[in-house]
Design goal:
- It contains ten helices and 41 strands.
- α4 packs antiparallel against α6, α4 packs antiparallel against α9 and α6 runs antiparallel to α8.
- β9 and β10 form a beta hairpin.
- Among the domains are: 306 residues, Transferase(Phosphotransferase), domain 1, CATH 1.10.510; 160 residues, 7 Propeller (Methylamine Dehydrogenase, Chain H).
- By secondary structure, the chain is α+β, with helices and mostly antiparallel strands.
- It is globular.
- The strands form eleven sheets. A six-stranded antiparallel sheet has the order 1-2-3-4-6-5.
């Protein structure tokens, strides 16, 4: 799909006249150009911040020369380049047609024979790339065009020479997470052709099922699945040639994967003689499957973005395998007056969002709850009455973070490039507290200090300590290399904890809120991906959740205890506030586990005794014996510790019920 040029776009690059815009990605912008003789080319212009780096220019020049040698019927030939230009560029053969991502999004998975034929074409293209001493490093559905004469691999802008050192800065990973190999995540500088074979297995799984084999709703969860879990291949006939090949390609150990030549031979024998590549639809479709919103957090981490919708829709929106739908409960659960009531079942439900709920917060007086969702609204709820109080409309993108002011009179909400303040009583807009310019500036996490004088804003890969009344930033905390995921103040407000998508360098960072000084980073020596963090009521212990729960001693920085249960990945955790009856508890929500037709783990919450580390209860939504494709995440206690709120959301494709907030009463 070719879009009109913007007023600021160039009209000529080198000898080529620019005719339109094709898209953009982490490396730069892509334009449609034509030579003096009218030959069409796709021109990629490198981003200024990359072009300003001498190391990048030198590596770019070497890789352009290597990419020019790539031939074959299934790649887009690099025909021209100027690494020395003020804005370096390369020109590749323009291949008209839709991407595999667009075709599957518009028409659903391909037939098994078509997938085999497609795989043979991609494998032949990869063989040509590898023969020239290159590794593509970003093979994904958006980089495969279904042309009239077969599939073509495009975008050699990040191809990497086998004998070259790392091109990227420390902490930066090039590629699209959902289709990366385990070794590319752990050590991006040492990838081999086996990494492309792993990506090929993921691409074929997507073509056959409409989702990636490691899809999840956050980058930490995706990384955990790629590095530690088996692929989800539901929808591919088990024992068949495609299932066998894909599993072989997705072997964790690079040495255990078949070489490209073997993949090609196996597909060439298996694929049918007649090309079954689907006919192109009359116009491209770029909307996500089931009209579900694209989760920005799934594709914007590590300093790079996936291709825009003009080129391809990221596949990370397909989060779970498809299964049989479940009916929505017609009656809201009601609290039992019996002293021996079942505490594991919800006593209330708050419904109103049309799409997934991504953020939630409880006011400090316990009267109100705020939720933000992918329907671009912020909703305020009266917890006492159990009903919606107001709907705040004004964001232009998903509301992915919320926080109340200390007095409960103001609620703050963050989205893409903006931070807004609202009147918590009426729901009226107060003001835009901040606006951001970078394409990576998602306000992904918010936390209010205990004294109400500082709002911690996780935006991009940094944390801003802001005056919540004026929007003035007094300190900027930098050190993370991936997008922020969670920030939390200690009870005395002197320390801030933060976690982000720092792949390969994950850990919990502690900061001095007075001067923004980095205090320490908590790591257990492994490559654990955290998705949340919270302090205990006394401030002595810190909880970090991800693959299990870790309890850290704040004073010493030492790991005190690790808790695990049936959840593969815990998407949220919280301490029960001080003063509640019973012992302090930590709660982990199973929001990012593998959902299957028979799985019930995803809609459960584990309640632990924080002192003994024993599991004391399991909270659940619905009949625990009945499968239900859903998950629980974003947990928060009311100040008295008696009520726990958890976001309950359906798996993608599950249209029988809408997301809600479930409420449990604890003794």
């Amino acid at each position: 799909m070719v879009e009109p040029l913007a007023p600021s776009d160039p009209r000529r690059i080198g000898p080529y006249r620019i005719e339109g815009r094709l898209g953009a990605g982490g490396m730069g912008q892509v334009f449609l150009g034509s030579s003096a003789a009218g030959r069409k080319v796709a021109l990629k212009v490198i981003r200024p911040e990359l072009a300003a780096t001498a190391q990048f220019r030198a590596r770019f020049a070497r890789e352009v020369e290597a990419a020019r040698r790539v031939g074959g019927f299934h790649t887009a030939q690099v025909v021209d380049a100027d690494p020395e230009a003020a804005s370096p560029w390369l020109a590749a053969e323009y291949i008209p047609g839709l991407t595999l991502q667009q075709v599957v999004t518009a028409h659903g998975p391909l037939a098994p024979d078509a997938v085999l034929r497609l795989g043979a074409g991609i494998a032949e293209g990869l063989a040509a790339v590898h023969k020239c001493g290159l590794v593509h490093r970003d093979l994904k559905p958006g980089n495969v065009i279904l042309a009239d004469d077969g599939p073509r691999i495009i975008d050699f802008g990040i191809a990497h020479a086998l004998d070259a050192g790392p091109m990227t800065h420390t902490g930066t990973i090039i590629g699209t997470y959902a289709y990366m190999s385990p070794e590319q995540i752990r050590a991006p500088a040492r990838v081999t052709p086996a990494s492309d074979v792993f990506s090929l297995g993921s691409v074929l799984a997507f073509a056959a099922t409409g989702r990636g084999p490691f899809d999840a709703s956050t980058v930490p969860a995706i990384v955990h699945r790629i590095t530690s879990e088996a692929p989800v291949l539901t929808g591919i006939a088990e024992g068949g040639p495609l299932h066998t090949l894909v599993r072989h390609c997705l072997t964790k150990d690079p040495a255990g994967r078949p070489p490209t030549s073997e993949v090609l031979n196996r597909l060439a024998v298996t694929a049918p003689a007649v090309p079954p590549v689907p006919a192109l639809p009359p116009r491209p479709a770029t909307a996500p499957v089931d009209d579900r919103p694209i989760r920005r957090r799934s594709v914007l981490f590590g300093g790079l973005a996936a291709a825009t919708a003009a080129v391809a829709v990221p596949a990370a929106v397909m989060l779970w395998p498809e299964g049989e739908p479940s009916a929505e409960p017609k009656d809201k659960p009601k609290a039992s007056k019996s002293p021996d009531r079942d505490i594991t079942k919800p006593v209330g439900e708050l419904k109103g969002h049309e799409n997934d709920i991504e953020s939630m917060a409880v006011s400090r007086d316990g009267k109100f709850l705020a939720t933000g969702g992918y329907d671009k609204t912020l909703k305020l709820w009266d917890l006492t009455a159990g009903r919606e109080k107001a709907t705040c409309e004004g964001h232009t993108d998903a509301v992915i973070s919320v926080a109340f002011g200390a007095d409960g009179a103001t609620v703050y909400s963050g989205a893409f490039k903006e931070l807004l303040a609202w009147d918590a009583n009426s729901g009226a807009a107060k003001k835009k507290l901040a606006a951001y310019d970078s394409e990576f500036d998602y306000v992904s996490s918010l936390a209010m200090s205990p004294d109400g004088k500082t709002l911690a804003v996780g935006v991009g890969s940094r944390v801003e300590l802001m005056d919540p009344d004026l929007g003035r930033v007094r300190e900027t905390l930098e050190g993370h290399t991936g997008s922020m995921y969670c920030v939390a103040f200690s009870p005395d407000g002197r320390t801030l904890a933060s976690v982000a998508a720092d792949v390969g360098k994950s850990g919990v960072r502690l900061w001095d809120t007075a001067d923004g000084r980095s205090l320490r980073t908590l790591r257990d020596g492994g490559d654990r991906n955290y998705s949340g963090v919270a302090f205990s009521p006394d401030g002595k212990t810190l909880i970090a959740n991800g693959p299990g729960i870790q309890l850290w001693d704040v004073a010493s920085g030492k790991l005190a205890r690790t808790l695990t249960d049936q959840h593969r990945y815990l998407g949220s955790a919280a301490y029960r506030p001080a003063g509640a009856s019973g012992k302090a508890m930590v709660v982990g929500g199973g929001g990012f586990v593998e959902i299957t037709k028979t799985d019930t783990v995803g809609r459960t919450v584990s309640v632990w005794d924080a002192d003994s580390g024993k599991l004391t209860a399991t909270l659940v939504v619905g009949d625990p014996k009945r499968p239900l494709r859903a998950s629980i995440s974003r947990l928060a206690f009311t100040p008295d510790g008696r009520t726990l709120a958890g976001v309950f959301r359906p798996a993608p494709g599950e249209n029988t019920f809408k997301p809600s907030v479930q409420l449990w009463k604890l003794p």
